[in-house]
Structure formats: C-alpha cells, structure tokens
C-alpha cells in the first residue's frame, strides 16, 4: 500500500520567472504561505501565481486565510496577512 505522501501530487516549485506577470497581491499571499507544510499549500501557491481575476483572488485569499489558520493558528495567520491590509 502506498504511503499517503506518495499519493499527493507535488507541484513544481514557484520560480521568479514564473511570477513575472503575477498580481502583486497574489504574490503577498504566496509569501504568506512560506513555511507551510500542508499538502494544499503548493497547489494553492500555483493557483495564486496563475490568478488573473480579482474575484478569483478574493476566493483564493479566503482559502489562504483558512489554510494558515489551520496550520499556524488565527494569530499567526493574521500576522502573515498583515501586508495585505
């Protein structure tokens, strides 16, 4: 039986070249996920880099807030998101 971590598909790392056209707010959200080991963090970063719609960015921000709260607690989540305020 495969290990749970083997089942999760790894995302390609985020590179500066891939972020050239990314929304600045999306990049702040990507930075807020640094150090987050949750399996969804990599996929969420990739979605943020590709995000071109403000409505989608609002939804992704909510997902980032939720993931940070799950991973680090509400106080640390808010501290990491302070740059957006």
Structure at a glance:
The protein contains 5 helices and no strands. With 85 residues, it is mainly alpha-helical.
Structure characterization notes:
This protein is mainly α. 60% of the residues lie in helices and 0% in strands. The protein has helices spanning 4-7, 24-32, 39-50, 54-72, 74-80. Helix 3 runs antiparallel to helix 4 (54-72).
Whole-number tally of structural domains: 1
CA-to-CA gap between the ends? 46 Å
Largest sheet: none
Radius of gyration: 13 Å
Query: What's the number of extended β-strand segments?
Result: 0
Q: What order do the helices and strands follow? A: HHHHH
Name the structural class. mainly alpha
Query: Which geometry do the CA atoms define?
Result: globular
Helix content: 55-70%
Rounded mean pLDDT score:
82
Poorly predicted runs of 5 or more residues: 5-10
- Proportion of residues in extended strands: under 5%
Helix count from the secondary structure assignment: 5
């Amino acid at each position: 039986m495969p290990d749970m971590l083997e089942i999760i598909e790894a995302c390609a790392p985020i590179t500066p070249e891939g972020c050239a056209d990314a929304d600045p707010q999306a990049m702040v959200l990507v930075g807020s996920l640094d150090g987050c080991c949750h399996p969804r963090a990599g996929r969420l970063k990739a979605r943020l880099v590709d995000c071109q719609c403000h409505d989608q960015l609002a939804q992704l921000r909510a997902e980032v807030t939720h993931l940070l709260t799950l991973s680090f607690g509400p106080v640390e989540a808010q501290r990491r998101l302070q740059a957006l305020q």
